[in-house]
Protein: Phenylalanine--tRNA ligase beta subunit
Organism: Chengkuizengella axinellae
Amino acid sequence: MRVSYGWLSEYVDVTGYSASDLAEKLTRSGVEVDIVEKLNQGITNVVVGYVKTCEKHPNADKLSLCTVDVGKEEDLQIICGAKNIAAGQKVPVAVPGAVLPGNFKIKKAKLRGVESYGMICSAKELGMNDRLLPKEIQEGILVLPDDTNVGDDILEVLGLNDEVLELELTPNRSDCLSMIGTAYEIAAILGREVKLPLAEVSSSSTIAADKISVKNLSPENCHHYSARYIEEVSIQPSPLWMQNRLMAAGIRPINNIVDITNYVMLEYGQPLHAFDADQLNEGHIEVRLAEKDEKMTTLDEVERTLEESMLLITDGTKPVAIAGVMGGANSEVQAETINILLESAKFSGSSVRITSKKLGLRSESSLRFEKEVNPENVTAALNRAAVLLSQYANGKVADGIVEELSVQNPATNIEISLRKVNDYLGTDLSKEDVKHVFDRLHFSYTETDESNVVVHVPSRRGDITRDVDLIEEVARIHGYDHIPTSLMVGVTTPGSLTKEQKIRRAIRRILTDEGLHEVINYSFTHPSQIKLFPGMYAESKHVKLALPMSEERSTLRTSLIPHLLDVAAYNNNRNQADVRIFETGRVFLTEEETLSRLPEEKELLSILLTGKRETAHWSVQENKVDFYDLKGHVETLFEYLGIIGLEFVSASPNGFHPGRTASIQINTGEQNIELGWIGQLHPSIQQEKDLEEVYILEIALEEVYKLSSFDIEYVSLPKYPAIGRDIAIVVGQTLQIGEIVNSIKETAKELLESVSVFDIYTGEKVSSGKKSVALSLTYRHNERTLTDEEVTELHSKVVEEIEKSFNAELRK
């Protein structure tokens, strides 16, 4: 919004404050002023002149020799090269000694042997925005109205002694999209009164309702439609002062009718539109929604195809305007227009916004309607425009307003307490201080008790709907600089991670420290990937996306392994066969064929190893990764997380090698909790992915979070010596060694400090279907030294139990 300082001063007394002062105060109160533009770009000694004579230059075909009266004793002889110069015109004249924009100084000169005492100026040479002027004026000297006084300072005549404040308004401050709204803001800041323009209509004997009629068929989109009838208007240029103010606001003057509607729009913030009443069907106005593919040509001579959601102004037979956006070419005011139907309405902001966006057509009118205009200004602006039309277009205003009102606008009353104001602002304002702010804002109020006030918010401030909005107004007008600075008071707590966050970070740190790389894949996958490797949740249904980015990413994953395999294959295809990667992420599960609720989410940890354990080196034998590398990562991780009772039990889940896979379980003493699976990838999938032996692991982290503990237990170093015994036994080849270890622990109980397997042998020296297992046992008592006899007796019981339970043979 461009606000003229000179125009603004008509509504509020700004004596003692320059345009820059007002810009500073507006910005400090929350209405940012982007720039303050001086319209005078360095003009001095330019006056109004009257061209008495205009003759051809004796020595140049394209120059004219003019005699110009500039209000002094002697006329000036000036040579002019403009094509539109003519005798009888009033024009801006830069007399000798004048300065034009760009520090261009005017001196006496001789052109083709003839002396010239000054310069007749164009709008561009005066630094004006000539794009806002008619094309014929852009290309020649500026011709002033006939009633302009000769000798007057051109700065006063063209309003170039003015300054313009350009406001950068936030969406909620649509009240400042008008001169009066801005005047209320300035008045509140300065503590002064607002002087509203007079709008007393002198009506003729003609009755408006006899000439025009209004019918609103879309009350939800048009809340109020009012119209006046003005007859016998005279189409001519608008007064120069009005043109100057329109151009200062960035609007091009057209004629007195259109200029008055634009002027009142800038003044009140209420868009108006003038129809040629004789072009309407019997003066009828009908507000309705457009029909499908209905067409109309707007004022910019563009034929537009309309949609059914767009609100139209019609005359009952044809559309004559797109409501709130732009008028139609078939009813515009032209030089021959005699009678005017003047429209003022309150259209729904959302309706105008949608229409404007769909048509790609924005105007000063739509800008204001989109942000909702003040409903109380509909009639006030209509009357103001009618007064100006009678003054400057010689129009006769018919008696009465023809209107339809479909939505009443209830008053906004908000109760506010002094205590809440001071609590929010950290101030110690009195009730009189707060009331004084509302007085300056021109908000009326009613006192309910000693500390509470009910504020009656005027309709021009539609942004104020709650008590906190009023508190903001108190802060703005009282002055942000006057709000005391104080330290925040409250209980502070140090930030920390949740247990789950700590565990996730620990998993990443430990696995990366052990040489693995973390990968992050899409949560979306192809259904064939799920079918290839269903993972831990094979029974889950597929969750399909409604609008997938591609077929490859059309389904939510149920396992992390398929994408890890894709990463391994991608690296293998680029000669990087040694891959050690992991990922933590969520999978999505449902039992429904068609979703009626959100899918269940499970967080998993998956690891993939393939290729060599270490790169080839003369000092290290080249070995490939195997099951035990992966098992070691799990044991290291669980040891750090404080999870005890880790067991690996043989299993054959889908997608895994049937003989090289185990279930990862935690024995709590009361139950075995299955966390996931570890093992070699099934050979058929390996072959499909064109990979070497791949070892994979997938664990559900939900139970890991529950079982983990970061509590550290300190144990003193043993004071008494340990006694070791080794044992080698021959058992069935299918027997799981974990069963033997558990049997030893149950038999030896607390005197057994550790048991470990240090050799497994199958070969010629062992019978077919048998294997030899060598174990090392360590015995220790925490409070005394064990005797050799005690250990021998206990060890004998252990051996006896193994032989009995597993049909084992002691190997000599």
DSSP finds 22 helices and 41 strands in the chain.
